[in-house]
């Protein structure tokens, strides 16, 4: 019989982490929708003059604005990975030791394959989440590089010009565009799985993972973690 759990509040996600998370989430949605429309523009008839219907230009402009916003948020998040608390730092996203990889296997058995009824009590990301976000970061870098590589051929801006080497590397614009579009579907797949796992773990574990990315606070069992009482107080402003 399970013993009653004694929860304490722990401040985990700092404000910059929460802001970049939601900014990136919004950008991914906008980029995914507009990217799909750019790849598959719908054809429709209109009674107005063609020059008045600049909808596709608006779609492309929205895509570019979201892309620049995503880059700024990504760069800031990289910076915060070196100055933030231990839950935000880059080391929490990299599995380097055999112990960390064993933990990833254990978490996968519990939360993905559900072949074990053990409990997981992570303060920050669990080992599988850490590995997944590291891969997602590399995928985001590829999208930035390939996206600006495509944009470089039609822009005179200095920033897209930095990526003019990308298209020759892939051989043709169509090849680069195909890879860029395929990566978009990987983001869509990640989003579906991520949202499901957030709701699932929030319901099963009761740690407040869903509300935590809004408030910054999570709930942990005192028996499972040595968190000082000071962690329950309001964190100092960064």
Tell me what you see in this structure.
- With 238 residues, the chain is mainly α.
- It has one domain: Transmembrane di-heme cytochromes, Chain C (Fumarate Reductase Cytochrome B subunit).
- 61% of the residues lie in helices and 4% in strands.
- The chain has helices at residues 15-39, 55-83, 98-112, 127-152, 158-161, 166-170, 173-205, 209-215, and strands at 7-11, 217-221.
- The protein has a two-stranded antiparallel sheet.
- Helix 1 runs antiparallel to helix 2 (55-83), helix 1 (15-39) crosses helix 7 (173-205) and helix 4 runs antiparallel to helix 7 (173-205).
- It is elongated.
- Residues 226-234 have low confidence and may be disordered.
Shape: elongated
Stated plainly, the CATH topology is called Fumarate Reductase Cytochrome B subunit
Number of strands: 2
The overall average pLDDT, rounded, is 86
Strand order of the biggest β-sheet: 1-2
CATH hierarchy, class = Mainly Alpha
Number of helices: 8
How many structural domains? 1
State the helicity in percent bands: 55-70%
Percent of residues in β-strands? under 5%
The appropriate CATH architecture is Up-down Bundle
Computed CA radius of gyration, to the nearest angstrom: 21 Å
Structure class = mainly alpha
């Amino acid at each position: 019989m399970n013993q009653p759990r004694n929860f304490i509040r722990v401040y985990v996600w700092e404000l910059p982490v929460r802001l970049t998370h939601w900014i990136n989430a919004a950008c991914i949605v906008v980029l995914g929708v507009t990217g799909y429309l750019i790849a598959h523009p719908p054809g429709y008839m209109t009674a107005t003059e063609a020059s008045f219907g600049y909808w596709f230009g608006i779609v492309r402009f929205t895509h570019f604005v979201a892309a620049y916003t995503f880059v700024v948020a990504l760069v800031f998040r990289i910076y915060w990975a070196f100055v933030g608390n231990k839950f935000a730092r880059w080391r929490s996203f990299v599995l380097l030791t055999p112990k960390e990889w064993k933990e990833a296997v254990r978490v996968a058995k519990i939360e993905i394959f559900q072949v074990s009824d053990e409990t997981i009590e992570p303060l920050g990301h669990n080992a599988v989440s850490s590995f997944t976000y590291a891969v997602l970061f590399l995928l985001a870098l590829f999208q930035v590089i390939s996206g600006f590589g495509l944009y470089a051929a039609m822009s005179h801006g200095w920033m897209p010009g930095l990526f003019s080497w990308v298209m020759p590397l892939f051989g043709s614009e169509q090849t680069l565009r195909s890879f860029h579009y395929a990566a978009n579907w990987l983001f869509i797949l990640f989003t579906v799985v991520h949202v499901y796992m957030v709701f699932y773990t929030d319901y099963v574990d009761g740690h407040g993972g869903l509300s935590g990315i809004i408030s910054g606070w999570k709930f942990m069992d005192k028996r499972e973690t040595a968190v000082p009482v000071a962690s329950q107080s309001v964190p100092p402003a960064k």
